Amino acid sequence: MRRATELRLRCARGVTLVEMIVAIVVTGILVSLTSMFGRWQIQSYFDVANRAELTDAADTALRRIARDLQAALPNSVRVTGDFIEFVPVRDAGRYRAMQTPAATGDILDFSLAADNSFDVLGPTVAVAAGEELAVYSLDIPGADVYAAGDVRRAIPAGGVGAVRTSVVFTPTASALPLASPMNRFYIVGQPVTYRCDLGAGVLRRHWNYGFTAVQPTPPAGNTAILVNGVTACAISYAPGVQQRNGIVSIRLTLAGNGEAVTLMQQVDVLNSP
Does 42 or 100 have the greater pLDDT score? Predict the structure, then answer.
């Protein structure tokens, strides 16, 4: 009976100070070990998240440029340093080159400087204010879309419309220089430029600055930032030949939060005017 009472008293005394200190020390060691191993996993998670964010931003910017270049006027791409310029196509179609057997139809006459209209064969085209007509741009002297009076003609207010079965344009002192082998014509907007501004660490888009014979670096007009954090950029253009289309290569490096990613995009550019 006495021994049982002593056992109950001993169990009721609880934990001693030494035991408590030992428990705290052991718990601290375990917490330190856990945080030591877990810290690297947490840091790795944030590193991966940062790289994914940079990759997504770079990929979005390159896809935007690629989409614009694929809708560029054939033979309108030109590159100077970190600047790439092109003329966007808004609509396109085929012009009437010959009259019907009944001698009807409005043809595009390349021998007549005063000619100012032609019928559209096939689907109708849409023409907005400020857009222009371009026929057979070859990026050579006398057939350069950037040169005034070569292959480009202004479209007056009377030629604007969402559903056009004919195209009306403003004639110049000379006729359009060359006929398209496939009777193609294009409705184009003003040139667009993408610029890698490494000084500011951004990729810019420029538009609404008009046509110039020499590529402007930088152009005037409107500008917007496409992506931030640009630390390196390289743009090259291999013009097309008969066997292949032109190829634009863009290498873009973005950096942020101690991480950096580099993406490269190659874009096929049509060269069939």
Answer: 100
Task: Supply 71's token pair.
Answer: 């809708």
Count other Cβ atoms within 10 Å, centred on residue 123. Answer: 11
Distance (Å, whole) CA 167 – CA 187: 10
Burial class of 221 by CB neighbour count within 10 A (0 to 12, 13 to 18, 19+): middle
The pTM of the whole model exceeds 0.70:
yes
Rounded Cα distance, 167 and 117, in Å: 5
